[in-house]
Amino acid sequence: MTATFESLGLPGPLLASLAKAGFETPTKIQAEAIPHQLAGKDILGIAQTGSGKTAAFGLPILAALQALPGRPRPMTARAVILVPTRELAVQIDEALRKMAGPSMRLTTVLVLGGVSRYNQVQKLAKGVDICIATPGRMKDLVDDDKIWLSETRWLILDEADRMLDMGFIGPVKEIASKISWKRQTALFSATMAPEISKLAEGLLREPVRVEATPQGT
Ligand code: ADP
Ligand code: MG
């Protein structure tokens, strides 16, 4: 039977904005990952580009954020999404805003290298729901006490294999080490190289493994 977004357990307001964004049927990785994430499980996702990872990790966070009272505290981020490139960060930010819809008043910040820190620091000072970041700049701001990870409840590592290739493993581990173990973590990668398995072992707790790639190809 084909899953629907409703059958995955997503709340009503989110279903409405999803429909508006033109999302009708969940992709395989979304159908497999979302129910586990809504249940609080860590996820180890093996999925190629175009499989729909953004909604797979984004929708459960948006669902939880909608149910949280109040605004984020100054200097904190409720969720941190680490990505290898600026382009990817911008895409994810746009996709999450579209899925959230205007009524949620989602606050996000892009923490990216190669551009001025000033606006990033200003936004962080107010506190944000979701921080989407490349690891190098994020580590700098954490080290300089411009963002506190004490209240962060979700950590996502998107395209972890590319972050590894780009030499971001050090900052990724350091950022993760500053976030409480009570967090929920999801790691997505196109491949399951030994280094990725090792990273996942260090960062995830009894993860559910989901795959969008066909077996044996
Ligand atoms: P990935 O991160 O795995 O490369 P994306 O999350 O960027 O994939 O999604 C790829 C494209 O598919 C995007 O344009 C996105 O809007 C679209 N998409 C994702 N999930 C769905 C869905 N359930 N229904 C329709 N379009 C979708
Ligand atoms: Mg993606």
UniProtKB/TrEMBL annotation:
Domain DEAD-box RNA helicase Q: 3-31
Source domain of life: Bacteria
Every Helicase ATP-binding domain range: 34-210
Renumbered ranges of motif Q motif: 3-31
Family according to the record: Belongs to the DEAD box helicase family.
Protein's recorded name: DEAD/DEAH box helicase
Source species: Paradevosia shaoguanensis
Full protein segment contained here: 1 to 217 of 477
